[in-house]
């Protein structure tokens, strides 16, 4: 089954979509696709079949999202915690991933036609090498596409993601690219696996479980969380519309909270800059406190320097990430 | 055509808002009619149902015949197969009532829950910590009566190290979230800057222990929504119709 399902909505679905689109629409939706195993038990089929049906439903959901002008989708495909499942199930999921990524590579033309950029987020070094290479080929092959984005969280947990971001910042300090005083919430966000995407507007979890399971914990601070009891393989267009309606009903309070937080972040950054400038002045042994206009100039100059350091660090980090994938792709070609 | 769709959208949202308003009005009427009975019904029915407990041992006849509420809470807690260690209360109302939160804290304590965190985005309870404390102590007397002496409550502020006591209450605000991770990250980067550490040594356990603090056990600090959700990976959401959102720590063992 293909990653991209061609097809249009029915008349009623189109009408509903047009009505919903008259209001604020989420630009980025995240899915926790829960319920494949329960679905398999319910239908008396093998677990593997449940996961396969789950993938097919993903393809269908991506089409609905495109029809609703939702250009970015993030899905939780495989958690680091899932490695604790039985060896048989883990191997089955790895094999399913191999088949799907191989299929993806065969559909390069289709992906180019729709402008789909695939990103895989997680600690890929935990996966078998051949799967890493397939993933790398898919990511590198669709890197330049920019019409819509599919982020697949594979070998992922939010804690690992946050820890990795802290580690990257520490690497930046070690390399002399940034200072420890440059560390901020905004910089940490730019070091996450998902740094290329805006935060999700809407997070949907199926199967009735009311928890986040270590998924996008940092990014969903101001997202609308919708928990739906339907099992993932049974997800329908109407379930998606219901979730979008919830998002629209809660749009203004979330927007207000988000704006307040941005203001607070800007205030904290200014405070941090002031404190750094004061410390620098003290270190340089200024005999008297700097005059107000001098202080303002110093502050501006410090902020510009900080921004330049951070840009340099982020470029180096991006180069490191890109090299990881291109090295894997080269290995795959040579093999 | 676009205008028609917009009108349809506005009509749909008007209907949904009206439905919400009617439901809130109805609940408010029911609450004012018999507030205490309503609260206890909500607590008795919704929390165990939402947590999906599979079985409950039946209470012995003497407790039931006595018809006494207070010893029953403790028995109810012991009767549950799984009891959360830590409950987080996310206040979603703009003007939360101290008495409501104090009630919930006292019920949690009476049932046997060791840690309760209270969060509101505005930081109202953070600024008026003593008011909440007084209300909790008052509710403790009122609801638990003669048994109130069995339960001691400890309030923890930022600087205080945790000591193991029967019930710990922590008040959180938006400063306790991502801010605390950024502070820990800065400390680690400073250590790297001063060549006390290497970046490759940083892992999940190191960051975890920095965030939890050296004297805090693994089940403690809950930080939610804007607040940090680092510890929320296994937490279950329970929504109750009193403008609260309760988070329950599933690290039960």
TrEMBL record, chain A:
Membrane topology: Peripheral membrane protein
Record's keyword annotation contains Coiled coil: yes
Catalytic activity: n isopentenyl diphosphate + (2E,6E)-farnesyl diphosphate = a di-trans,poly-cis-polyprenyl diphosphate + n diphosphate
Swiss-Prot/TrEMBL GO biological process terms: polyprenol biosynthetic process
CDD domains: Cis_IPPS (cd00475)
Entry function: With NUS1, forms the dehydrodolichyl diphosphate synthase (DDS) complex, an essential component of the dolichol monophosphate (Dol-P) biosynthetic machinery. Adds multiple copies of isopentenyl pyrophosphate (IPP) to farnesyl pyrophosphate (FPP) to produce dehydrodolichyl diphosphate (Dedol-PP), a precursor of dolichol which is utilized as a sugar carrier in protein glycosylation in the endoplasmic reticulum (ER).
Name of this protein: Alkyl transferase
Taxonomic classification: Eukaryota, Metazoa, Chordata, Craniata, Vertebrata
From TrEMBL, chain B:
Location of this chain's protein in the cell: Endoplasmic reticulum membrane
UniProt superkingdom: Eukaryota
EC number: 2.5.1.87
Biological-process GO terms, alphabetical: intracellular cholesterol transport; sprouting angiogenesis; swimming behavior
Cofactor list: Mg(2+)
GO terms for cellular component: dehydrodolichyl diphosphate synthase complex; endoplasmic reticulum membrane
Assigned keywords, A-Z: Endoplasmic reticulum, Magnesium, Membrane, Transferase, Transmembrane, Transmembrane helix
EC category: transferase
Record-linked InterPro entries: Nus1/NgBR (IPR038887), UPP_synth-like_sf (IPR036424)
GO molecular function: ditrans,polycis-polyprenyl diphosphate synthase [(2E,6E)-farnesyl diphosphate specific] activity
Transmembrane segments: 227-248
Claim: RNA-binding is one of the keywords in the record: no
Reaction catalysed by this enzyme: n isopentenyl diphosphate + (2E,6E)-farnesyl diphosphate = a di-trans,poly-cis-polyprenyl diphosphate + n diphosphate
Biological or metabolic pathway of the protein: Protein modification; protein glycosylation
Predominant localisation class: endoplasmic reticulum
Membrane listed as a keyword: yes
Similarity comment text for this entry: Belongs to the UPP synthase family.
Official protein name in the record: ditrans,polycis-polyprenyl diphosphate synthase [(2E,6E)-farnesyldiphosphate specific]
Organism: Paramormyrops kingsleyae
């Amino acid at each position: 089954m293909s990653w991209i399902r061609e097809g249009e909505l029915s008349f009623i679905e189109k009408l509903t979509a047009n009505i919903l689109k008259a209001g604020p629409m989420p630009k980025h939706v995240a899915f926790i696709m829960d319920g494949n195993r329960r679905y398999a038990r319910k239908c008396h089929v093998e677990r593997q079949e449940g996961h396969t049906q789950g993938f097919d439903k993903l393809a269908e959901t991506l089409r609905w999202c495109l029809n609703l002008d939702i250009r970015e989708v993030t899905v939780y495909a495989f958690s680091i915690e899932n490695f604790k499942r039985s060896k048989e199930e883990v191997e089955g999921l790895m094999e399913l991933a191999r088949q799907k990524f191989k299929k993806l590579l065969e559909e390069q033309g289709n992906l180019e036609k729709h402008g789909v950029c695939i990103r895989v987020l997680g600690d890929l070094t935990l996966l078998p090498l051949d799967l890493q290479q397939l993933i790398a080929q898919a990511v590198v092959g669709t890197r330049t596409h920019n019409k819509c984005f599919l982020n697949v969280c594979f070998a992922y947990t939010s804690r690992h993601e946050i820890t990795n971001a802290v580690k990257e910042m520490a690497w930046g300090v070690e390399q002399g690219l940034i200072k420890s005083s440059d560390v901020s919430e905004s910089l940490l966000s730019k070091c996450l696996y998902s740094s290329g995407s805006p935060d999700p507007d809407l997070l949907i979890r199926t199967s009735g479980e009311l928890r986040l399971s270590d998924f996008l914990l940092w990014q969903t601070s101001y997202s609308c969380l919708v928990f739906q009891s339907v099992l993932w393989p049974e997800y329908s267009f109407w379930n998606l519309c219901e979730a979008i309606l919830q998002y629209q009903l809660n749009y203004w309070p979330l927007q207000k909270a988000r704006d307040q937080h941005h203001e607070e972040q800007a205030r904290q950054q200014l405070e941090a800059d002031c404190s750094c400038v004061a410390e620098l002045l003290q270190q340089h042994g200024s005999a008297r406190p700097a005059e107000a206009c001098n202080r303002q100039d110093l502050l501006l100059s410090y902020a510009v320097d900080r921004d330049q350091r951070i840009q340099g660090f982020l470029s180096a980090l991006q180069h490191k990430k890109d090299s990881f994938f291109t090295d894997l792709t080269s290995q795959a070609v040579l093999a | 055509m676009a205008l028609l769709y917009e009108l349809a959208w506005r009509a749909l949202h008007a209907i949904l808002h009206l439905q919400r308003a009617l439901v809130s009005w109805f609940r408010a009427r029911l609450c004012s009619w018999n507030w205490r009975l309503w609260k206890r019904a909500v607590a008795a029915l919704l929390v165990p149902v939402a947590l999906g407990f599979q079985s409950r041992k039946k209470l012995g006849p003497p407790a039931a015949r006595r018809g006494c509420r207070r010893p029953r809470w403790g028995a109810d807690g012991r009767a549950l197969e799984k009891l959360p260690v830590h409950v987080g209360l996310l206040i979603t109302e703009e003007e939360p009532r101290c008495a409501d939160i104090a009630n919930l804290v006292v019920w949690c304590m009476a049932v046997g829950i060791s840690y309760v965190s209270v969060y509101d985005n505005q930081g109202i309870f953070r600024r008026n910590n003593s008011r909440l404390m007084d209300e909790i102590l008052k509710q403790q007397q009122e609801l638990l009566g003669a048994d109130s002496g069995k339960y001691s409550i400890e309030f923890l502020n930022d600087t205080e190290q945790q000591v193991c006591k029967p019930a710990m209450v922590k008040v959180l605000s938006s400063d306790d979230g991502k801010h605390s991770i950024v502070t820990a990250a800065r400390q680690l980067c400073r250590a790297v800057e001063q060549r006390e550490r290497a970046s490759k040594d940083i892992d999940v356990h190191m960051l975890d222990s920095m965030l939890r603090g050296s004297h805090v056990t693994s089940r403690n600090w809950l930080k939610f929504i804007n607040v940090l959700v680092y510890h929320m990976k296994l937490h279950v959401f329970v929504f109750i119709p009193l403008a609260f959102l309760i988070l329950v720590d599933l690290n039960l063992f």
